[in-house]
Automatic annotation (TrEMBL):
The lineage of its organism: Bacteria, Pseudomonadati, Pseudomonadota, Gammaproteobacteria, Lysobacterales. This is EAL domain-containing protein. It comes from Marilutibacter penaei. One of its GO terms (cellular component) is membrane. Residues 23-280 form the EAL domain. Coiled coil: none annotated. It comes from the Bacteria. GO terms for biological process: signal transduction. Keywords: Membrane, Transmembrane, Transmembrane helix.
Length: 281
């Protein structure tokens, strides 16, 4: 029994070692991935519901690993956050997205300027105004108008230390950028939370949007979020719109903007620019 127990222990510890080893490897390989050109941004178009005009894009990070190919963002973003790598990666992503948005404007000067949304991880929000400084210098270096930059923070990142986060958000908004609450509705913080956290917009999580055509509860919740946000002067964006029916229903309920596979998938910069030119015709 002793021997079996020992083997058993060895088996589990080996499996754990492998998981840890893979993580350590990923972390090691993620270090320097930007410099090697393995990381890039893709852009998913965001549309205004009332007239179906493209008003902006969300920048999403991709990692093309030399051995494993595309690594899921849910995996490598987590590695980047846990290891602290996000602190050097975050500003690069921000800078690249802002430069890209300036390029769109330069290529299509007559067009209504587009917004660019960048995801910010909670870890980037932790140091006394550090993110606001990064954002300010990024706007200065790229020349992007502050109001064109949207920063997306998950609802769960904002709950908890509200006084501290509130202060950080206030500093960010002083730079003129807009702050959006991402994955809204999943954090169970309740709509009343919106009164205390100074944000410009909420992005309704795609898990709510997925079922609005079939589930009256999800539709009721979505409608309530829209009404509540609007009464506070907050913009509402729906994510994960995969069907025409969802789009029509959201439009009918007064939702402001939407993104999703039905409207457009995330795509590399040059492809996004081509789409933009196409739509401008
Ligand atoms: P997110 O911010 O909620 O981004 C939206 C995710 O939904 C993206 O997944 C996008 O590809 C996917 N999506 C878009 N339309 C649809 C749709 O119609 N249906 C469905 N089912 N999915 C749709 P992705 O690119 O895999 O990114 C996953 C998460 O990784 C993001 O979720 C975000 O939290 C994080 N992430 C991505 N890029 C960055 C980054 O540069 N920085 C940080 N901190 N996090 C990032
Ligand atoms: Ca997002
Ligand atoms: Ca989201
Ligand atoms: Ca449901």
């Amino acid at each position: 029994a002793k021997v079996a127990g020992k083997n058993c222990f060895r088996f589990y510890s080996r499996a754990m070692d492998l998981a840890v080893e893979r993580r350590v490897n990923l972390e090691h390989e993620l270090r320097g991935a930007w410099e090697r050109g393995e990381l890039s941004l893709v852009y998913q178009p965001v549309y205004r519901l009332s007239d179906r005009t493209m008003v902006g894009a969300e920048a999403l990070l991709r990692w093309n690993h030399p051995k494993h190919g595309q690594v899921a963002p849910s995996v490598f973003i987590d590695v980047a956050e846990q290891s602290g790598l996000i602190e050097s990666l975050g500003p690069r992503v921000l800078h690249a997205a802002c430069s890209e948005a300036v390029r769109w404007q330069q290529m299509l000067p007559g067009r209504e300027p587009l917004t660019v949304a960048v995801n910010v991880s909670p870890r980037q929000l932790r140091g006394g105004g550090a993110l606001a400084e990064v954002v300010a210098s990024c706007l200065k270096e790229t020349g992007l108008e502050a109001g064109r930059l949207h920063l997306e923070l998950t609802e769960t990142a904002v709950i908890g230390d509200e006084a501290h986060v509130g202060e950080e958000l206030a500093r960010l908004r002083e730079t003129g950028v807009k702050v959006l609450l991402d994955d809204f509705g999943t954090g169970f913080s309740g709509l009343s939370h919106l009164r205390r956290v100074p944000v410009d917009g909420v992005k309704i999580d795609r898990s709510f949007i997925a079922d609005i055509l079939r589930d009256p509860d999800d539709l009721a919740l979505t409608s309530a979020i829209i009404a509540m946000a609007h009464s506070l002067g907050i913009t509402v964006i729906a994510e994960g719109v995969e069907k025409a029916g969802q789009y029509a229903l959201l439009r009918e309920r007064g939702c402001d903007q939407a993104q999703g596979y039905w409207l457009g998938s995330p795509m590399p910069g040059p492809e996004f620019l081509a789409l933009l030119k196409e739509e401008g015709r």
